[in-house]
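User: I'm writing a tutorial on reading structure tokens. Could you give me a worked example: one chain, its sequence, then its tokens, then a sentence or two explaining what the tokens reveal?
Assistant: Sure. Here is the example chain.
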Amino acid sequence: MEYFQKMRGVTKSLPGPGWQEIAWSWLGAFVGIAAVSSLNYTFLADSDLILIIGSFGASAVLIYGAIRSPLAQPRNLMGGHIFSAAIGVFCFQTFHSQMWLAAALAVATAIAVMHLTRTLHPPGGATALIAVIGSENIHALGYLYVIMPVALGAGVMLVMALLVNNIPKTRQYPEFWF
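And here are its predicted structure tokens:
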């Protein structure tokens, strides 16, 4: 019974953010995703390359909406995505004949490595998984996937986060770099 009691939680929900915080989070996410997306569709539309992946949407939640979270800091954003991308590519290339195993190993190993390197960034798990379950275009990139779209796209989003999150006097980003 004690086991099930733990599922009740220990505190009440935090109060919601004010409208200004919501507005700045919206603007940051819009600008960040727009920058990566417009670069993707303007310069890469006629190629097999991509600059935007689904896990960047989750990163936007953190780096524009939860800017004080340790999981949203530049070290975590960049390191979490880069380590996870490399692990995902390795798992796909090594275990592609057993996709269920490649997917599970990619996500679990990415989490362990992010913990070990102090770069825990939850969207990194999705980045690792995308490397395994992504399209043929993703698979064809091989380790280039780590550089583009992952490192380059996350870097563009980081620059936008630095610019937008520091406009209002009430916000400061980052809390730490390393």
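What the tokens reveal: Residues 34 and 157 are 9 Å apart (CA to CA). The chain has eight helices and no strands.
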